[in-house]
Design goal:
There is one protein chain. The longest helix is centred in the N-terminal third of the chain and has 29 residues. This protein has a domain of 32 residues. It is an alpha+beta fold and 86 residues long. A two-stranded antiparallel sheet has the order 1-2. Strand 1 and strand 2 form a beta hairpin. The radius of gyration is 26 Å and the shape is elongated.
Length: 86
């Protein structure tokens, strides 16, 4: 077998292994559960940022509702007056 043939076979094997690995990873990602169960109350999310040796940074916490409908209401703009355009 020539050098080109050997390189082609090795490259094909590497591509097959990478493809099989990608399929396995994608199947496992579909099974993992993300997020949290809906319910009553709030989650507390802590957020912090520190910018190195200068001592600057920011730290805060947010309350996020567990109820999806209540969470979605936070994205609806508030109207100053009641206006019915329908």
């Amino acid at each position: 077998m020539t050098t080109f043939g050997t390189i082609a076979v090795i490259s094909a094997l590497i591509l097959i292994v990478l493809f099989v690995r990608a399929v396995i990873v994608m199947r496992n990602e579909g099974k993992s559960e993300r997020g949290s169960e809906p319910g009553q109350g709030h989650h507390v999310v802590d957020s912090s940022y520190f910018s190195g040796g200068g001592g600057g940074g920011h730290q805060s916490s947010f309350r996020v509702p567990k109820d999806p409908q209540e969470y979605a209401k936070g994205f609806v703009p508030r109207q100053k007056g009641k206006r019915n355009d329908r």
